[in-house]
Write a structure and sequence with these properties.
Blueprint: H1 4-18, E1 25-28, H2 41-45, E2 52-56, E3 59-63, E4 68-72, E5 78-83, E6 92-98, E7 101-106, E8 113-117, H3 141-148, H4 155-159, H5 170-180, H6 193-212, E9 253-257, E10 260-264
Antiparallel strand pairs: 1-6, 2-3, 3-4, 4-8, 5-7, 6-7, 9-10
Helix pairs in contact: 1-6, 3-6, 5-6
Length: about 270
């Protein structure tokens, strides 16, 4: 599933084409996504000018004077800026019309979303309970320490909870914990303030590096130009079970937590 760096990579890719552009409407070939696409989307968007393209957690938000379009890439979604004459393929479900070009939403598994919202975004049911953005000043070691001080669950599961901090998916949780020297199975409440500061710092650093690398190559993820990201070349633990740790040469171990795979070095991340 595309995580925060992949979504931010997409935002940066589409923003130059959308900022200030006036839409001629939308073509909805198949509106059966995770939630139904508004059947009147073409009429809603026709003639609207894009004021900004932002991101909240893993949601892309296209802002207009009269409302906002929320886009979630789901497990396999992508957005590509292509000539309007480009033939649509089987899984190309929606086009946002931009004159000679379209912003094309492709989603083989149809688990993404494209929703219209009128009113303050902070009250949208999908956004109102989200935690702080990890790459802003709203998130730091003190904030993390306060959020997890009474949580007995494993720290990896806790930092993947969007109520604690948004956008830290499985890949980047594994990598951040490794660089902070924290075992993924430790009870969150046992982390000291100093350890929380180290973990918050690594979450910010790892996510920033992944964004600069264009995200990771995750099965279906490609950026707006159809190219894969390269952060997977820099993994220290994720998907490297039984391979030598890049720091101490110990074999990387794999376990299951919350139905997801966790990876860690037993020497660099002691229990």
């Amino acid at each position: 599933m595309p995580e925060l760096p992949e979504v931010e990579t997409t935002r940066r890719g589409v923003a130059p084409y959308l900022d200030g552009a006036t839409l001629q409407g939308a073509i909805v070939r198949d509106g059966r996504l995770r939630w139904p696409v508004p059947p009147q989307l073409d009429a809603i968007l026709s003639g609207l000018t894009v004021r900004a393209v932002t991101r909240r957690a893993k949601y892309l938000i296209i802002h207009f004077d009269s409302g906002s379009l929320l886009i979630h890439l789901g497990m396999s979604g992508s957005l590509r800026y292509v000539p309007a004459t480009t033939p649509a393929q089987k899984h190309d479900h929606i086009d946002l019309k931009l004159g000679s070009h379209v912003l094309r939403y492709r989603d083989p598994r149809r688990f993404g979303a494209m929703l219209w919202h009128v009113g303050p975004l902070e009250f949208h049911p999908l956004l109102q309970a989200l935690g702080p953005e990890p790459l802003t000043d709203d998130f730091n070691g003190d904030v993390l320490h306060a959020a997890i001080s009474k949580r007995s669950a494993a720290i990896k599961l806790v930092i993947m909870d969007n109520h604690v901090v948004v956008g830290v998916g499985n890949i980047y949780a594994n990598e951040s914990l490794f660089h902070a020297g924290i075992n993924p199975t430790r009870a969150a409440s046992t982390l000291s303030r100093a350890e929380c500061q180290a973990l918050a710092t690594e979450i910010k650093r790892v996510l920033a590096l992944a964004i600069e690398a264009g995200g990771s190559t995750l099965r279906d993820f490609v950026n707006t130009e159809g190219k894969s990201g390269y952060f997977q070349q820099d993994y220290y633990v994720y998907d490297r079970q039984e391979q030598a740790c890049r720091i101490c040469s110990s074999p990387i171990r794999q376990i299951r937590q919350g139905q997801r795979s966790s990876y860690y070095c037993p020497l660099c991340q002691p229990c």
